[in-house]
Amino acid sequence: MTCRLCGSARLHSVLDLGATPPCEKFLAATELDAPEATYPLHLRLCQDCLLLQIPALITPEETFTEYAYFSSFSDSWVDHARRFVADATDRVGLNQDSFVVEVASNDGYLLAHVAGAGIGCLGIEPSVNVGEAARRRGVPTVTAFLDEQVAADVRARHGAADLLVANNVYAHVPDLTGFTRSLRTLLADDGWLSIEVHHALNLVALGQFDTIYHEHFQYYTVLSAIRALAAGGLAVVDVEMLPTHGGSLRLWARPTELAAAPSPRVAAALAAEQDAGLHRVDGYLGLRPRTETIRHDLLRYLLECRARGERVVGYGAPGKGNTLLNYCGIRTDLLEYTVDRNPYKHGRFTPGTRIPILDPAQLDKDRPDVIVVLPWNLEAEITDQLGYTAEWGARLVYPLPTLHVVDMTEGNRR
Ligand SMILES: [Zn+2]
């Protein structure tokens, strides 16, 4: 096994989460008696370029051709996209002659704001069903995985992008250097690339182990992202810290040959990583004990609920929840079911742990004592959505960054 960025064979084990199924493989009832494939989930660090990575044991084609995640189901994502388009329009100076391309454009939740402003745009989205949803809302969308051939075809047919957006996709590409060259091909020579990825500083420092799953092949610090983009002829000029996914990076990059010197924010982000020890190997070794503590605290809490005869269910069925459930070994004896706002998931079961996923209306019918929130990164939004559970005094459990309980009987109703 070698590093997919620099080719080094010096990969150091950081966290071994055992073997689990791919986290987006929600099971239909008819699949429950069939075998279910599991794959090792073992995070390693390249000791030479410091890229955190797992082996690419599944292909993006297996995951994303019929994808269950529609970005528009999250209110906070839709707001996030609206603000991004407004900010990017100012930074890049977009006007009616500009052209915006988004890679992994999902259901068009972001480009809809670009199209709505009368600016030309194109989405590139591999999943047939979510790409169709984008076209229905008026966002032109090519159904494809971005590679160097697709990039050349799009540039020849539509022109180069003044703004190229690649949000929450840069972790999902096994051919990291080929994908990065494809981004450069799509981008105008004076264009801007905007990338959002989870920040590995938060993964390591806050024990966010549930962001590790088979579909995420690499996990970036600002340092390793600078190195990865440089391999494709792109230079990072600015970085923003975002609260999304428990702490993400928005990297702004431009073609190396014209890029200005990096902003002070890039230097500050690199300094924060260095202070946290992430520019050397031993700074990563605290992740394992942090992860084990989260597992032990959650299991202890659920076992205590069980001993008291309380009814415990989940809220949300995000991909990351499946890393948490599988690693912790939580099944229907400890979590009766979970609920999710995405109707695609209703009647399905979580991979590996086979916990039923129901409509959120079930909560009001059953009035469970305890609700474990799996998308813990949306704590404020979800505590708000679940304000009505104060009617029966539910307790909301957020397992990360350290287990904490929001008691809806004590004036927490919003
Ligand atoms: Zn490397």
TrEMBL record:
Coiled coil: none annotated. Gene3D superfamilies: 6.10.250.3100, Methyltransferase, zinc-binding domain (6.20.50.110), NAD(P)-binding Rossmann-like Domain (3.40.50.720), Vaccinia Virus protein VP39 (3.40.50.150). It holds the Pfam family Methyltransf_23. InterPro entries: Methyltransf_Zn-bd_dom_put, Methyltransf_Zn-bd_dom_put_sf, MeTrfase_14, SAM-dependent_MTases_sf. This is 2-polyprenyl-6-hydroxyphenol methylase. Residues 3-64 form the Methyltransferase putative zinc binding domain. It comes from Mycolicibacterium chlorophenolicum. It comes from the Bacteria. Residues 243-401 form the C-methyltransferase domain.
